[in-house]
Amino acid sequence: MIIVIDYGMGNLGSIANMIKKIGHKCLITSDLEEIKKATKLILPGVGSFDNGMKNLQERGMVEILNQKVLVEKTPILGICLGMQLMTKSSEEGSLSGLRWVDAQTKRFVSDTLKIPHMGWNIIKHQKNSQLFDEIEREKRFYFVHSYCVSCNQEADILTNTNYIQDFVSSFEKENIVGVQFHPEKSHKFGMNLIKNFVENF
Question: Catalytic pick from 80, 92, 151, 172?
Fold first, then answer.
């Protein structure tokens, strides 16, 4: 079962609709027993880092997610804030992240360009992955974010994107995948990515 994790933050319905369009079923839930049964996990997120971590902690999800992701190696896709929560920490808050990936979440700083980074932008591949259709190399996705991920291990970086600076727009470490952009707002590119995650991981 594909589980979309409901921890009070994220475009849950949009993601579920996209999964339905590609011919699969999913369950949006905060029920810990249902999460334990997941064969695929999606951790969406819109909002602040500390609120995201507090919500996961207060719902008792952190221990179960650690078991599913780190021990059972269940494939998980983090989207936007969901990706950032997978890192060690964020300049947005004071709480520790899930620490699944050796990375930090940092604030965009610019005197000339608008923050948040909002709109369509191109991803640049750093390595091949089943998450992307490698035939069509230039792909555009929709971004809305004021913070970005910086990976300490180059091997974890899947794609980079440039806005103010080069930043990590997606990473992949074994069964753990994170994307800074919103697949559910990215039309055919996003639908293809969700399909690849559901069917290839």
Answer: 80
